[in-house]
Design goal:
heterodimer; A: about 140 residues; two-stranded antiparallel ribbon; B: alpha/beta; 5-stranded parallel sheet; about 10% strand; globular
């Protein structure tokens, strides 16, 4: 099941040139871009591992593309996203975030139902990949 | 949109490097129009008019610009000789205009399309080399990332190499630098700057660095007349001017100052003028009570120039390390 999180996730995966163009847009807006990766893509898992620090004061996307290439080399079988942070006073939040790398196989999520008091029904989503294997081995290379 | 499911594979080759499509190779090319279209004419002209002297440098910059322009045209005709190496080395004494020319160079490279953004990141050893093990690589990479798409100007680059200390982290920075200079030639142009003799010994001990630098530009010292011209230009820019006797006094000042230690060409001229402005302001302040005209506020008179410590016959302290060796 294809995971759709962040911007552009209903489009086919962006090519490197398209990613570069989006990053140029971020830099034109003076946003700081960072690269993050995870092997637990639960929608509620907001905090992904950081690949290096957010990159401030960049003028060109080449630097970010370099970091992204390094991250793909190390975590090619995980989800990688880039996040653009708008540090304008009063905004100070993520302005754009999109997935730039995903595992070859995405097993998707299971819906768990739990009986609560009375006839309440609680639902939770469980990732097959996370259920099956410990961290680091969740997606086969 | 192209299918691109396996992004974990090696990144797609950079499409930007691809030469202009071979389908429509023009038969003839008007170099004159290319020159006008690129808009480098005005930069070269302003280089000529804004910077006093520096004839060999101007000739060198013109050569490089011509090479790049012709290379661009050749590429369009399908005659590409591969991306030219653009890393440069500027050598010369302090205050001879290395940084200024580097800024212009960045602009020329940008207009010709060899530099995507055309900004200049000026750094020294401190910005590249860390203080403990493992600190240098991230620091250097950070600077390189900031400079991508523009020009990385490394001032006094020879300090990166400290032959007396084998464990110095400078070597690590040099290695990262070399790697990027080689592999990401179209992302980044590196300009090294510093004194001629120390730069030469730096290249001798780092042959890898020397072989990756294509253009060596050496900046000569200014002559006395050129220094005076620079001074007049600076004053005009700040809306000041010399009274005739003051001009003569300043020429004398330059002659003395040039032969003193720690003379930094245009920078010393600027500092001297700054001090003269201080004295002029003080004189006006002390004369308050009379009506001042715009002319009074602009003109620098002889006593302000003569007040410099250099004119003091007792001042022959050559060990002084301040710029002029004196208070305003």
């Amino acid at each position: 099941m294809r995971i759709t999180q962040g911007a552009f996730s209903f489009l086919p995966d962006l090519t490197d040139d398209e990613i570069r163009a989006q990053l140029e847009y971020c830099l034109d807006n003076k946003w700081a871009v960072s690269v993050e990766h995870t092997d637990d893509p639960h929608p509620r898992n907001t905090y992904w591992e950081m690949w290096g620090q957010p990159m401030f004061d960049l003028h060109d996307a080449a630097g970010i593309m370099g970091e992204l290439a390094e991250c793909r080399e190390a975590h090619g079988n995980e989800y990688i996203r880039v996040t653009a942070f708008d540090s304008t006073h009063g905004v100070e939040s993520v302005a754009l975030s999109f997935i730039v790398n995903r595992p070859a196989e995405e097993p998707g999520f299971r819906l768990d139902r739990e009986e609560g008091p009375g006839r309440t029904q609680r639902y939770s989503m469980v990732s097959y990949a996370v259920d099956r294997n410990p961290a680091g081995e969740r997606y086969p290379t | 949109m192209s299918e691109h499911t396996d992004t974990s594979a090696t990144p797609a080759p950079d499409a930007r490097v691809d030469p202009v499509g071979s389908a429509s190779e023009p038969v003839t090319i008007d170099l004159e129009r290319e020159y006008a279209d690129a808009g480098i004419a005005e930069i070269l002209d302003s280089l000529d008019s804004d910077l006093v002297g520096l004839e060999p440098v101007k000739r060198n910059v013109r050569q490089i610009a011509a090479l790049l322009l012709v290379e661009r045209v050749r590429e369009r005709m399908g005659l590409s000789a591969g991306a030219p190496s653009l890393h440069m080395c500027f050598t010369g004494n302090p205050g001879t205009g290395k940084t200024t020319v580097a800024m212009r160079m960045a602009e020329i490279l940008h207009r010709l399309g060899y530099c995507r953004k055309g900004h200049v990141v000026a750094v020294t050893r401190d910005d590249l080399v860390g203080q403990y093990i493992g600190h240098t690589a991230p620091k250097t990479k950070e600077v390189l990332k900031r400079a991508m798409g523009g020009v990385l100007f490394i001032d006094e680059a020879y300090y990166l190499h400290r032959p007396e200390n084998e464990k110095d982290y400078g070597q690590e920075a040099i290695e990262i630098l070399l790697q990027v200079m080689e592999n990401q030639r179209d992302d980044l142009v590196v300009i090294l700057a510093g004194y001629e003799d120390r730069m030469n010994s730096f290249f001798e001990s780092n042959p890898g660095m020397a072989s990756r630098i294509a253009h060596h530009v050496s900046f000569p010292d200014y002559s006395g007349e050129e220094l005076f011209e620079i001074a007049e230009k600076m004053l005009a820019e700040w809306n000041y001017r010399f009274a005739p006797e003051a001009a003569a006094a300043f020429r004398q000042y330059l002659e003395i100052r040039r032969n003193r230690p720690h003379f930094a060409n245009a920078r010393s001229v600027r500092n001297a003028l700054d001090r003269i402005r201080l004295r002029q302001a003080l004189r006006l302040f002390e004369e308050r009570g009379r009506e001042l005209t715009a002319d009074d506020l602009q003109t620098i008179h002889e006593p302000e120039v003569r007040a410099s410590r250099l004119f003091d016959p007792e001042c022959d302290d050559t060990t002084d390390t301040t710029d002029e060796g004196g208070t305003p």
